[in-house]
Amino acid sequence: MFSPRLPNALKDKFARVFVTLSRRKLAAAGCVLAAAAIFTVVSHPAVVGASATARALPVYSVERDGKAVSLTFDAAWGNEDTQQLIDILGKYGVKATFFVVGAWAERYPESVKALADAGHEVMNHSDDHAHFTKLSAGEITANIAEANEKIAAACGVTPSLFRAPYGEYDDNVIKTVGSMGMTAIQWDVDTLLPVGVI
């Protein structure tokens, strides 16, 4: 392995360096093999299927033949533009879905009825525009049920769709909404653009 011309002291030094390098290479190779083994086990479909859980998501869009847009509005604050909006949509023969807050429906029942009478869907946007990711399943159920009652009292239709306030949701929110027989809906394009952007 070593040249016979090297003095013994140099042979010993090179041998120690070789052994040290060999140990480092063996340790590095061992780490690489261990990482590859762990990656293979963790990435194996049986392991992934057993350990990964799918995140619960609202409906963002629906596949259709042809081009289509679903126009939705959230109603939580004032109602001063509601009739004008109904008139504009009516002029162009457009039907929309309005997600209304229960407190808004209670305060402006004539606006909720006008929306429904114009052929628009009136759906649930919570009772009080709370942060639903901070609520328990029981609190979510009670909040949505109270809004459903107020909306039904105003227009005669009980909502089947729900949009979370602030667009905030987690698995608990989506699963709770589903357990009520309702479908959670989210927007995929937000029209709230900065002023001057068109």
Descriptive labels:
single chain; 198 residues; mainly alpha; TIM Barrel; 2 domains; 3-stranded parallel beta sheet; two-stranded parallel ribbon; 7 helices; 5 strands; 8% strand
Question: What would you note in describing this structure?
Answer:
It is built from seven helices and five strands; from the N terminus they run ααβαβααβαβαβ. The protein starts with 7 loop residues before the first helix and ends in a 14-residue tail after the last strand. The strands form two sheets. It has a three-stranded parallel β-sheet with strand order 1-2-3. Strands 4-5 form a two-stranded parallel ribbon. Helices cover 48% and strands 8% of the residues. It has helices at 8-43, 45-51, 82-91, 102-107, 109-117, 137-155, 171-179; strands spanning 72-75, 97-100, 121-124, 161-162, 183-184. By secondary structure, it is mostly helical. It has two domains: 8-51; 72-184, Glycoside hydrolase/deacetylase (TIM Barrel, Alpha-Beta Barrel), CATH 3.20.20. Strand 1 (72-75), helix 3 and strand 2 form a beta-alpha-beta unit.
